Structures
1.
Amino acid sequence: MSEADGLMRLRLPIAVTYNWSAGPNATSHLAGLMEGKLIGKRCPSCSSVYFPARNGVCPKCARILAEDVTVGPKGTITTFCIVNVPFLGQKIKLPYVAAQILLDGADISMQHLIQECEAEDVRIGMRVEPVWKDRSEWGPSMENIEHFRPTGEPDQVMGSESGAS
Amino acid sequence: MGLRDIAIVGTAQRPSEINSTFTSVELLLPIIQEVLTKVGIERQDIGFWCHGSCDYMSGQPFSFVAAVDAIGAWPPIIESHVEADGAFALYEAWVKLQTGEVDVALVFSNGKTTSGPINRILNLQTDPYMVAPLWPGFDVLSALQARACLEAGVVTQRQMAEVAWRSQRDGKNNPFTLSGTEMSVDELLSQPFTVDPLRAHDCAIPVDGANAIILAAGDAARRLAKRPAWIRGIDHRIDTQRLGARSMIESSSATIAAQKAGVGKDRIDVAELHAPYTHQELLLRQAMGLSESTHINPSGGALVANPAMAAGLARFAEAAESVFSGSADRVLAHCTSGPLLQQNLVCVMEGE
């Protein structure tokens, strides 16, 4: 409580602790990350491969995603954005690139950082690969991957990959 | 323009769990498939979907959006969500069916009540300036209400224990609840207070649960169910959120809602009351003018299984099932929300 400027101010912080469960269906995805594996899930109905495994269900078919599928580690940039605006708590040097990456074998893209190249050189169709943090820093998180970097392979012609949705 | 005839034609409930390791989406998906199978229709036959849940319970803003995964949103669907018990989603679906735009609606709700301190989480529903910062929690607020009721002579400790005893006895026959203790009324009365004057048996058991109900209008309802539970009246009333500005020993919103829903027009065979505390069931019975001949909470009620945000819709499922089976002709389903019976939704259903 303070009384600056003749005004009484109260700070009333709110905190609640939860036991969060990833659920049996997304657990193999998170456990895979602990071992440096990229494990997605295949829908038994439409065969789409989800990485990450979302809530463990296919939102198109409303079916449980039962089958584990290893995807990547390489992938293709499907779209990207160059970040030039500084904001509070920013950890990465500007400008940097946030990209949607479609991992090989997956049907939905995921967002990650692109580093080890100039922002202006990033393009749709560019082939990229993950750069992992030191194993001692790994947890059940996509943050185990520090960033993605260009592989130098020829660009993927967009639209030729299968089933992106 | 008159109102359309709308009925509950199918229900499905998930057995109660404590500390479920499933996500909310995983809790919901099988129960939605079960109710569709029971009624014999496909996802594509549903014209409107409505969901009731509370983001505070999962601690994730917009977590309710993920629930759409459980219903399958392709081809595109018409859906809505209420940040409340599924019973209020049922009310919205009833309004949607009244517009005549759709003939069949599916309502669903879920609550992982044991994944956080529910008493503390629900505290966040109280007035954020004068009440919430004191962190009273619902148990303490309800104990104050029970104290006021006892001192005014509106309820007695023995009546409260009798409500608990009857709920635990009936809950044992309900596969969706967790079985309670087998103590007599006298033994219950000898138990220590948890929040004076409430004992453990006076407070609902928090559980994780999910349920789903299919509503249909007119001929669609007659086609989908042998004996639909026709909604004859439904009404929702709210008391002021200022706890000090309303009477603790009556529930005027429940009285008005019951009157508007037509409770007093004829006898009620079964009333499923959503009363998370024993004294609140007694208050509700008085407020709605329910007679001794009405069978209260044959399911055991929320006292023996209270999946927050799904416990009210469970009352609708239980009441409708008693019409489906023919064990009752005219039933009442009720849902409350907010501290101390602040909001009350009352629905009267009949078989033909």
2.
Amino acid sequence: MKIKQDQSRFRQIVRGQIKQNLRKFISKGELIGRQGKETISIPLPQIDIPRFRYGTRNSGGVGQGEGDVGDPVQQGGDPNQPGQGKKAGEMPGEHAIEADVNLEELAEILGEELELPLIQPRGEKQIATERDKYSGIRRVGPESLRHFKRTYREALKRQIASGTYTRENPIIVPIRDDKRFRSWKTTTIPQSNAVIIYMMDVSGSMGDEQKEIVRIESFWIDAWLRSQYKGLQSRYIIHDATAREVDAHTFFHTRESGGTMISSAYRLAQRIIEEEYPKEQWNIYPFHFSDGDNWSQDDTARCMQILREYMLPTCNVFCYGQVESPYGSGQFMKDLEQEFPDDERIILSEIRDKDGIVGSIKEFLGKGR
Amino acid sequence: MKIGRNLPPELAALQEEIEGYARGYGLDFFPQIFEVLDYDQINQVAAYGGFPIRYPHWRFGMDYERLSKGYEYGLQKIYEMVINNNPCYAYLLESNSYIDQKIVMAHVYAHNDFFKNNEYFKHTNRRMIDEMANHAIRVRRYIDRYGLEEVETFLDVCLSLDNLIDYYSPYFEDMKLEDDEDDGIAQEIPKFRVEKEYMHEYINPDWFLDEQRRKMDKEKESRRRFPRRAVKDVLWFLSNYAPLTSWQRDVLAIIREESYYFAPQGQTKILNEGWASFWHSTILTKKAAKDSEIIDFAIAHSGVVATSREQLNPYKLGIELLRDIEERWDKGRFGKEYDECDDMRTRTSWDRQLGLGREKIFQVRKIYNDVNFIDEFLTQDFCERHGLFGFDYNRSTGRYEISTRDFKQIKEKLLFQLTNFGQPFIYVLDANFENRAELLLGHRHEGVDLRLDYAKAVLENIHKLWKRPTHVSTRMDNKGRLLSFDGKEHHMREFEYVEFSG
């Protein structure tokens, strides 16, 4: 259908791939639907072609129903969208809408939105997985792998050649030499693996809002990296004065309190990498989120040492995100800047509030490493 | 140009039956062709504004997506679609029930009759299905030659101007701008009166006369305004006078033609839908519906004429007004005597048994559009009976509130919404603004300001055609304003707002 082309064109515009000039006229229309008893709204981007028209605020309109002067026209609902004079055409009942997007598409959209480059896996770090594939034929093998068709064909050929085949009584009896068996070939498939190690400071100074920011940000980072690597693994570490590995749920829900020793988390991350993710085979992405408060300068020095001697040479890139909090000093970031000026292997990002998340994701992933 | 399937035998028989009823009631229509479409096809056709083939443009894709999603989520479906064309095409949704198809067919025959007979459709192209396909071919050819991006971007520009047409111009002869004449400007150089001949060279010295001559030339020059009269059909003006390449001119002409084709449907929405609803309910209840179907009919019909507080339903308003008219003319409730009667009892029992109702509504469908239909037949009685109200935005509460129950104000509001499609009046005022070949448009202010961000975007688009700075004069917050776009930046300055008319 020709209209599918128009549709994909429209989607490209919505995603911002083409026609940037139209983007400011994209409105977030929505479709109110029902799922069981619940009302759900499905957002549907609509693009308004700009035309000379009246500002809606001062026009008003005519409606029908009960009510006195001064009563609101709409009971509940969105007061910003009164009935606009609809355009012609013989189409009864139009509403707004859209769109079922799965996570993969979301990541794709995110990538386009933020103009994230495709990540190039590190060449020498590709590991080869071996796969057995039953694609060959052998003359010997177990009965369970006998290739019936081939065996039949061989037997038929032999019987015709030797004249024992008769059309009237087409019985084929294979003998040992006729038998053919499936056999496997081993192929190697290059595969790139990646692991993300999320580290979060859960000391007393990290409030719920800060954790919310970390949660949202790591979700999107996860979504993006997953779209880039098959078999992505995630590990979660939380730390205050000591560090421990936790599952994803705990990672996002714990609130600890106490002091902060960042080095404890780095040391744990180092151990995990050393034990399970040899750098020749894995793309490694440690992300550390904190409010930038560390217990002591001594500990900070220890962190720097771990970073310099182990993390940076081992990992694809080391990401540090600093969430602004009313209690944190934000000193750690300054220390990092001082220690590693202009080092490409480390990315620092400051996240002021929820609105800063998008920019921060871009800072982390925008380099395509 | 067939896209759907022919009617299955039971629907073909139904068509014959319904057509018979319609003819029996005196409806007069083009040959009617029905096709059966599945939901995906009908969504496509609906996105194309009812046509099987249109030129490629993303907004059709947007509409298609919206319709499809709406259908898939079970929130809406399109029952029927009918095209103003000879023969008249209409599409039936495959999954409709038999009774639905009955209603739709009856509805369609009335639309068909309306298309054929209503005065405002008189100048529409009755071969529009073919014409649309031609347009598609032309645009595709340009796309092949100049690239999708280029042509589509130009279409975007044209579409943002497609409401700038003159809805009444089809009733005039070909538009021509009269040649400039120097009428009304003094031909002689003005001099001071001289009593005595010998004083002449002292009172009117040569340098003074030269200055006067220069002044006069300048005056002449400035009077040579182009166009001489404000032009409402901005699209026409641009396609004639903007520096466009020939393919651009053609695309602009295509958009303009389609805009004019659709215009009457917008101008007669209430009357047309009212007429169709009037007839489907009449045909179904009096003739077509079996006893066992009447409940299903009632459910479907009540869905069509459901009312809402935020927006008048044109189907409902139209059918009720037509019924009201029919009753009034049947009983003779019109004219001086009835209007001046202020005794409620006499009025409610007023019945002269004239039986003119049917005749009257056929006349109404012939010569009215929404504006004069409402203007003439929306009465205070009707307004009260149907609980109409006017609403406005209340700045202090931040919501829309019922602002009036007064008949006059309601009617005024309604008419305002309908006049010019409820869109601002924009004219070309001067194509040589400031004597620099800049384009000046004028917004005739009718009490409501323009939406600023959209106006700016449209100016940018006009600039893409005119290729010189463009301006629109308007009023904002009761002050004259000139919005300008010079190709790079927008400006707004105070400007004397001059009343004008086309």
3.
Amino acid sequence: MNLQVLQEIFIKQITQFEIDDDFLKQLTPSLSLSPEQQVAVYQNNVRGALQSCLAQIYPVCCTILGEGYFKQLAKGYIQHHPSRHSNLNDYGKAFAEFVLQQCQKRPELAEFGYLSDLVKLEWRYHQVYYAKSSPPFDFEEFTHLTERQQAHSTFQLAPCFQFMASDYPILSIFQMNQVSTTKKHEAVLLKAENVGVFRKQNRIEVFELEPSALNALNLIQAGSTLQAIVQAKLDDYLPQFIQQGWIVGTEK
Amino acid sequence: MSSLSQIKRPISGVGIGLRSQHIQEILTALPNTLPNIGWLELLADNHLSEGGLDVTQLDAIAEYYPLTLHCVGMSLASVEPLDQDYCRRIKQLAKRVNAAWISEHLCFSAALGLYSHDLLPIPYNQHTLAHCVQRILHIQDLLGERLLVENVSSYMTFENSEMSEIEFINALAEQADCDLLVDVNNIYVNQLNHGLDGKAYIDQLPLARIKEIHLAGYQQQDNFVLDAHNNPVSKPVWQLYQRLIEKRLAIPTLIEWDNDIPPLQVLLGEAEKAHQIMKNGVVQ
């Protein structure tokens, strides 16, 4: 077996959790491990690294479900989603979708309807943590545009700003289950909460967005022009978004 | 960045691996540096994002500590095309934090676009050697500097290995003209798992090429030992370390601790032990 074939079979076995008999024939027993056990060590290492990675990205989900159950859930995700990036920070993007499916399949998760939205929020928090910083909005450049150019401008949101809509009190759940919180036993208000996540200097802020602000942000993210935002009567938000650093540029 | 960080600062004495759990404590102490800690090592792969909190913290730390970069993603022995973007980002990070050197493991970690995020062993034979030599030469060209290559712990032995690990490493260092990072715990883990002679391994190392030593703790499993980096350095590892230090004093030495990370004081205690051996040549 040449080096390329050996590496390909090796990686498939440990990321897709299979055993290949031809590969086992390439191994010699060590002092204490049979060829099957040798492969199992690496399978466990891979699974453990990805479980730890998911637990770090989704600490609130892990707190709510308990470490044992979270690990079990993560194991199922890892089985179907091997890592395809050298950077572990990119792993786990599809976890929200997986959790949504699991909530529909597993009776014990039926009461956790909000869990997928919580996972989405934690992914946004993770993205904001590692996002590139942007220079502030260039007012001078904007004022040099003609009125027509301004009307047809679209706006760029800062990479270190993310937002989401939810039908659940997702911000309250997120805040009440922080390791450092003292509010754990407070009752959750049963209202939907839309959430913004923004990194300001060295601090990440997670906050509620009012419905009309969410509508304005949705228009901006969809590439709507200033003219369209004015027509929707949501342009009052623009100076506020720029001042807060959520909008960092325009495209003509 | 200040002018301090424009000149590469020498690495000497004992260092510790910089872990996120300790960053705030280290930042708070600045401009004072930790006692007996000559330098810090970054797990480079954790710091490759272009923005974020980590980068600003690193900039502050790089002002006061000499830094080295330790990588896990180059996949030195992989037959996949080299990830040139990864190498470019490593080079940028090294420039940003003014890293004294860059190290990577003798293993592969990816194939078929699948990433293990683990250090996967290779058969030690002439074909693998030739492949690794070419790959390291290419990487060194891209980085514009010599790479430090580290021996790994392994839990697998291949039928088509033709030489011992130390024979392979000696040939590799010579042919690729690279430097070495000797992980003494990995030697001992392989001694326990595969029966290699740790003392003989140490005695055969090409001393002039060793730029750094790693020390860490392993974890006993049912029927093997795992290089878990979650325990203090074991006594047999300190003894192997002493054997190496006696041959060539003052090789920069790093305490690695990656899992179940203890308070910073525990790492400093381990660093102090290494410091004493370096100074007095005695395992306490």
